[in-house]
Amino acid sequence: MPYEIKGLNEECGVFGVFGAAKASQLTYFGLHSLQHRGQEGAGIVSSDGEKLHRFRNRGLLAEVFANENNLDALVGDVAIGHVRYGTSGNNILENVQPFLFHFGDGDIALAHNGNLTNSATLKKQLEEGGAIFQSTSDTEILVHLIRQKMGMDFVSALKQSLNEVHGGFAFLLLRNNRLYAALDPNGFRPLSIGRLENGAYVVASETCALDTIGAQFVRDVQPGELITIDKAGLHIDSYTPKTQLTICSMEYIYFSRPDSIIHGVTVHNARKKMGRLLARQAPVDVDMVVGVPNSSLSAASGYAEESGHPYEMGLIKNQYVARTFIQPTKQLRERGVKMKLSAVRGVVEGKKVAVVDDSIVRGTTSRQIVRLLREAGAKEVHMLIASPPLRFPCFYGIDISTRSELIAANHTIPEICELIGADSLSFLSLPNLIKAIDLPEGRNLPNGGLCVAYFDGKYPTPLYDYREGYLKSLKKQQEREVV
Amino acid sequence: MPYEIKGLNEECGVFGVFGAAKASQLTYFGLHSLQHRGQEGAGIVSSDGEKLHRFRNRGLLAEVFANENNLDALVGDVAIGHVRYGTSGNNILENVQPFLFHFGDGDIALAHNGNLTNSATLKKQLEEGGAIFQSTSDTEILVHLIRQKMGMDFVSALKQSLNEVHGGFAFLLLRNNRLYAALDPNGFRPLSIGRLENGAYVVASETCALDTIGAQFVRDVQPGELITIDKAGLHIDSYTPKTQLTICSMEYIYFSRPDSIIHGVTVHNARKKMGRLLARQAPVDVDMVVGVPNSSLSAASGYAEESGHPYEMGLIKNQYVARTFIQPTKQLRERGVKMKLSAVRGVVEGKKVAVVDDSIVRGTTSRQIVRLLREAGAKEVHMLIASPPLRFPCFYGIDISTRSELIAANHTIPEICELIGADSLSFLSLPNLIKAIDLPEGRNLPNGGLCVAYFDGKYPTPLYDYREGYLKSLKKQQEREVV
Amino acid sequence: MPYEIKGLNEECGVFGVFGAAKASQLTYFGLHSLQHRGQEGAGIVSSDGEKLHRFRNRGLLAEVFANENNLDALVGDVAIGHVRYGTSGNNILENVQPFLFHFGDGDIALAHNGNLTNSATLKKQLEEGGAIFQSTSDTEILVHLIRQKMGMDFVSALKQSLNEVHGGFAFLLLRNNRLYAALDPNGFRPLSIGRLENGAYVVASETCALDTIGAQFVRDVQPGELITIDKAGLHIDSYTPKTQLTICSMEYIYFSRPDSIIHGVTVHNARKKMGRLLARQAPVDVDMVVGVPNSSLSAASGYAEESGHPYEMGLIKNQYVARTFIQPTKQLRERGVKMKLSAVRGVVEGKKVAVVDDSIVRGTTSRQIVRLLREAGAKEVHMLIASPPLRFPCFYGIDISTRSELIAANHTIPEICELIGADSLSFLSLPNLIKAIDLPEGRNLPNGGLCVAYFDGKYPTPLYDYREGYLKSLKKQQEREVV
Amino acid sequence: MPYEIKGLNEECGVFGVFGAAKASQLTYFGLHSLQHRGQEGAGIVSSDGEKLHRFRNRGLLAEVFANENNLDALVGDVAIGHVRYGTSGNNILENVQPFLFHFGDGDIALAHNGNLTNSATLKKQLEEGGAIFQSTSDTEILVHLIRQKMGMDFVSALKQSLNEVHGGFAFLLLRNNRLYAALDPNGFRPLSIGRLENGAYVVASETCALDTIGAQFVRDVQPGELITIDKAGLHIDSYTPKTQLTICSMEYIYFSRPDSIIHGVTVHNARKKMGRLLARQAPVDVDMVVGVPNSSLSAASGYAEESGHPYEMGLIKNQYVARTFIQPTKQLRERGVKMKLSAVRGVVEGKKVAVVDDSIVRGTTSRQIVRLLREAGAKEVHMLIASPPLRFPCFYGIDISTRSELIAANHTIPEICELIGADSLSFLSLPNLIKAIDLPEGRNLPNGGLCVAYFDGKYPTPLYDYREGYLKSLKKQQEREVV
Q1: Alpha-carbon span A399 to A404, nearest angstrom
Q2: Where is Mg(2+) bound in this sequence (chains A, B, C, D) (predicted)?
């Protein structure tokens, strides 16, 4: 969750509700609990049965809807919403979702979490046929594919289109009287269904959004499914028989909220077990265990309990870090001005400290943490990472920096340890990661039903438009390494 | 720190620096780490040696200085700053500090943390002498008292004025070439001095602000002291010999940041010990210990370690709660829409849970927490409060709701337990509180050098202007209780 | 120009420049002098030769670019811009121009002044072919028509598309290395070309924009022309041979700035002559002539000079009317609170006053003016309108309220006179209007080369999609009149 | 009124109303018509009979009250308001009026138009007595003087204080149940009383504000008067018998709105007569007369009528000049980018033009106007100024640039003519100015009851604190001239 100090970010959260009064307000509260999945933009589209209404803008949800009138104007008892993570290049209003399209035969709204691997090819084909795109996002492609099939009934056109796009995706589509949810054939992204007391159905990226609005969990959307919700209730269908679950392991390690339950596994519990297994795999002789707030506290408490070392609050995070925050100048940084994280001198001074963090991307944050603790008087600092080294990019919806930036793609573990200045450094092994998550549905599947490609480079699907560039980057890196 | 869900608030944090380039930026970063002490307004005054410059506004520090130009305009190597907690009635721009006064013979700026007990009397006397006040704050009185002594040298006038005001106060005064810091004779409020590498001195409400800007701790300001900092360095003086330390115990229990060290005691350690002593004093038969994030995590981990029960993350706090946040309507609340805090079903379901919180004011939050946990499936919920029951108001700078709102002033512990719906409820005893904090300087003083008047109603000073109203309210309450 | 007190509004102004450093800034200043043509939104697209850059928003130009960085980011020496008038229903960001389309084979930007009469039909056809529109504006259609002709070279596709759209239009299109300007076959809207000292070409809705940036007038764009500007200079071509000039007479009467020269006629001079001819046609026995500021001052001075009556400043306009202006409540209006216009008591008291205004739409403003003057003591108020009665809607780019709102479509002149409370009321005759404008190019054309359909209901082109609705409304009105 | 292109500015407008429902809204509309007197800040204080309420901010009135809630919060049927002109140095929120003072014995609000000549001396004396000022404005002094007289009844203290301040002033004071208005003994500034239909009294800097809210003119406040308005009605009193009317002639020449009537003279009529007398005094051989919009249109029409030359609209002003307007860079200005004013080529091309302006301060604007007209093709440009040369500063409330900036203080008329590039230049003579205004009350007074010190340097009162600096500046200038 501490997105601001990481190079690792989830792209987006989606939420939808059908058949509840003040649907846009429920969507607002649902999205609020998904805010950790994207902070660059937010939007909601509601339907009053005749027309779709939208409000969206860049910024946090609470900023976008700072003027409550903008929420109140989204009337109707059906709505979908989206919180967006955007990379700097494409952080423009046109890309903020849900997308909304007005047609003579009715409106369509669309919200998406994921990344398509054949979008460049599809976009080129569509443009050559006269299509005009309004955003630089690949999400829009789905609607163009559907509209190319004019004459076909909507659901058939949608199913056929879902077979034409590849990659990781969780789509919500809204028409005036129906809400559709579709998941890719690998189920890379989480998507759950809940039900409110009045019988209204809810769809959300994580179950924490169901809890927030008081909805009961019904089931996870399964790979390759197309869910339709309308006045007659919930309809489960699938658009392809070729499916195999490989859900993103980073959802358990880092992205999802600790209280979310994905495919039967509570995220906090998985993290705690990662900590426990790491304690067995990499014991250290220390006085205390410290977690990096907030995302690594679960793993750290697991490590502490299993190792028997006391669990201490040796690092605290300033809860008032706003995005408009003025940054210390170089001059001030050299003078030691610290932001966001502080070490608790009264706790760590003179002590041997084990720091548990969930992952290392570029290594910058780890280096800062080690320095903070040493300046506060820690005698030794041992860094313990509750996941394997990140060495390969993700093409299914996570923005992991290019390989050249991943410290573990370019350095051995002892080199990294030296670069971050720690006394020792250990990573959880891949088998232990799979064991910690222990997905019930994945027990007979490769890698326990998880996608672990960022760790081992073995992608569960073809890479389509990304394949060539990826192979080139691998080659270039190997050349560098040889030199 | 979770000010938004409490009825208990500290009034203000102060920070000052003398003799460091970009003093206003250092002050900004210092205040940033004191933001938990006040979120209603912020301001900084700098001195370039000839003139004082000010910028202030209502809102969080990062909002006030959202436009960096406003900070850059505060030139000079001396500055003081203030973050303000304000009650609704007086939350106007005129009351945002530091105050700045332009005189023909030089400017004066003033920042204050505390509350004066004889301000009404002084203000009346001054107005009858022709004085004109520009704010509704009592802070301004000090400058009027000084200016009434025209002809006297500044320091003598200041010392005499400090003897005329009563109550709890930590003042910072800035003139063009001097920075003054003064603490009340009881040292109700914390105030610490640090030094930067280049020799510049820093004064701050808490030591966490010293750490943030890389300053070394020098000493705590002592009761009755007047500190002067100028080009010649640090001068320690006192304006009265009649002093006795009774520092606010709530600073340790709730207000201060866990990494701050006050009179030699690290706040986190004090809280952890409160948890430990509570575990000995009030053991419960549970499956796990859960802390209320974020302020009660220290005490909860102490309770867990001492009791041997596992420490779990059964409650999590949404880190994106903004102040513009749209509130759920009654209709939505009834439907179960929850904000800010969530219970982790995967952790607490079917379990007996001990919840550790730092204090209970009106009881509203405790009731919500119990309900959240029960809805998430907790079998039993035991509430453990790491401080004694709050039964009396504070007149020295903490905004504790009037007695009529304090649940413990009106109900017995079994009654409170029923009102909040818990299976059991225990409070830390007063002797254990004093023992947990264990102030080195206070070992031979009554109550260990602490003010504990909110718990026992024994105020360490006369109440002056408040006395009559306080006695009336006591009487009214007793009558109610008799009826 | 006093758009805020009228029911009559021009839709939009356009501006483009090719080959001048800081093209976006020149465009800003050009648009600034066209602000009277639209106040609801503004935008600029620049080209740096490789990429198009855009900034747009709702509001006045100075509001849209209040942060100068947004203008500075529009780099390059080519740019087009747009100021927009929008009716309430479609006043959304998506409709603010220029439109910008990103294609694999290059970007296109588009700005438009006018109204298409067959847009509904075209849009339906395009959607049935799979096209997706992003705005509710008909401007977008042109780009879809062009993209349907993939394979054809761009200019041929553009020319063919220009033959498919009907109505009144002045289009600017920008590609990376070329700027295109196209005018409809009737030349309903004004569009002029200028040249800067360095040889760069400029296109603008009115010549006042050329003057503002120091460009020399080159020529008016003629009906049916397609102008191309690139590094090789200016190329004049036409996309159809079937043209006949019928430029909008309201441009001379009301919309354009008095200093603009359209088809060789200075707007101020035409208005002054309207006043002169009105003085001959409708002499009144008065003490003075007063113009309604600001748009009617030219006509009023013409009336005064021709009639020999003194020209007086009997009405003044508050120049600080902002759009956020708080409106007087009904209670205050009844108490006589007046905004915007004031009568000068010291001038009109006890006098017989001739008021010259340019037109009457709903009659509301005229009624207010008569009342203002009477309250200030005027003995008689004679209303003189320097154009014929407005009785029919416009379909070529002017937002004249529907027929049912036009007072002259529903009442005789004596009835209107009574409704507005004047002592007498006269309108300029249609032949005198044509004589006053006296278009050199139009001397052998019907109506002197002008469109006067709002006065006589004789539209110079078929009405396409509007025909049926228009005929219905005529019939409904006739029935009402019969009843 | 075109304050943005002048170096000459009026300091402030005041408005007050007693006994009308929604008094703050009436005040808003009254101030709106006084906006030309000050654009840097605005504020309103209302009284509900028990408490005074204030809202103020920097900016135009419509900006300050952009959020209507801020106006609605000013409840009660009594209010005063202020629009402020501020020089750059003191344009801070603390200086925006009305000032509001809270006292134990009741609140006082204060609004002021004018300038005190002994404020430095008084401020020094008051500070030495312990007074603390909250603004850098001299307005505050009056309240301190009153409060120094504690024990005396309020009206006696006020009267005595009014005798202690010197210079030009129009004060409005508000207490809970009384509104006071006071004018200096020379009546330098205008101040008028009106009455609403319901009997409520209104006080305003100009009568145009009375007209705007539908109030009937009652009388002008006379020099040395103290007016009291309360539930018993209007009470006229005077605080000094030593009075002599010398009202500021610049109010007639430039500042006041043309529809205002000051001491019986309509401003537009005075200006028109200035134009007429200038035509007789300085006839020129031209084809047309052109006024500089908007302030010089009255004088220009007078000149045209008297001379028999046609009055033409040869210059127009862009009505959309906003304060956030992006300024042309030097590069763009050299390319000829023009703002604010445009010459109408179709009117002036090939013609001999007489331009009438109200005054010349630094000469910059005149030079621009001459250039604009020549670039638009004017054959000759004759500049005619409808007032005498401005050669001396004002100390009574007008911000005329220091002598060193006044072009007429440093150059002869032929030199100025050459500097601005005109073919000829004439100024109205001082006797003709006095004759044009022709103040009924001033017929037997020196200079017809006008202050004309900016023209002849003969100040009607001692200069007090300004005397020494003024004499020095005269001497320095004489030395420069000798050299």
Answers
A1: 14
A2: 295, 357-358
